[in-house]
Design a protein that fits this description.
Blueprint (H helix, E strand, L loop, with lengths): L9 H6 L1 H8 L3 H13 L4 H16 L7 H15 L9 H27 L7 E5 L6 E4 L5 E4 L4 E5 L8 E12 L20 E5 L2 E5 L3 E7 L3 E8 L2 E6 L4 E6 L3 E6 L4 E6 L2 H5 L5 E8 H12 L2 E4 L8 E7 L3 H12 L1 E6 L2 E6 L2
Parallel strand pairs: 5-6, 15-18
Antiparallel strand pairs: 1-4, 2-3, 3-5, 4-5, 5-8, 6-7, 7-10, 8-9, 9-12, 10-11, 12-13, 14-16, 17-18
Helix pairs in contact: 2-3, 2-4, 4-6
Pfam families: FecR (PF04773), FecR_C (PF16344)
Organism: Hymenobacter mellowenesis
Protein name: FecR domain-containing protein
Amino acid sequence: MAPDYTTFQTEDFVLDESFQAFVAGSDAAAVQFWQRWLAEHPAQQPAAEQAQQLVLMLGQARQPVTSAQRKAQDLQRLRRAIRQPQPAPMLRTQGLRRKRLVAGALLFLLVLGAGFWLWPAAGLQRVQYATLGGEQRAVQLPDGSVVVLNGNSRLTTAANWDAQSPREVWLEGEAFFRVSHLTRVPNLPVAQATGNAKFVVHAGELNVSVLGTTFNVINRPDGFNKVTLNSGKVLVEHTSLLSHDALLMAPGELVEFTPVRHTLAKHAVAPEAFSAWASGTLVFDHTPMPEIIRLFRDTYGLEVVVADPALLRQTVTGTLPNKSADVLLKALSKSMGIRTERHGNQVHLLPLN
């Protein structure tokens, strides 16, 4: 007997196998049925749309290699967490409590499912590369790709890569990527790539997918996430609880995530300016002082103290060396007409007089 879909809530749609097949497009009959049914029941469309977003998010979660028994146990545990027994008629407060429980269970499902996508699977052998403040390090990956890590950064990868899985890395900090192109299919869209043809950088709130190209990624604290593309194509995705944003980049574009609005924004830039650090220089173009202070904190591990608030309103334009924090401070003080004093990891910016 078919379920009464008119009584379904978001969590019911998520757990329904026919609805999952409709979202995935893996069953033509399910697709045809749900398209017709949703058109005939507009009142259920909001819940179905939310469920569709959840199913899509879970579909992006790449499950780790586990035994069939482990997968079955996980599925059973998730179903128990989400499904509640049909109770007797409830008071309004009881219904609210059930909705909160269901919402929490759905969030648990998302975290459990998407967590494997956002971080290497538990038990999987990993390799980590890290840099100290002000240090840079070039790393060659198993596929021949080269990654240059900026200061205070860390790159995590699986120890062994195979042809059946995407090439994945997890970045904390900043890195410049030169990714090897492995696909033999001409003009293959990034989103359609399978196996190791796709290279994915997981950077905080963002997933950055490419086939083979050069680009710069920043994943710093406080939700500071940026991607700039030098060559090729890049697909940048951000997934939240009920939404999925994706932007396809062309060379000369920057995509950033703004945590206040929780959206992706794209701008035209000179990408060489954002990756110049990997060649030993920093390019500033009317760069506000707060951004430079953040650079010293994130890349060099230095705390900058500004004596005169007027200095915070200044901007910097020019090309400065970045191999040493002290050399950079000296060049910065000369270009801005200020004094700098360093005491350990603390730097004071002072007016000349």
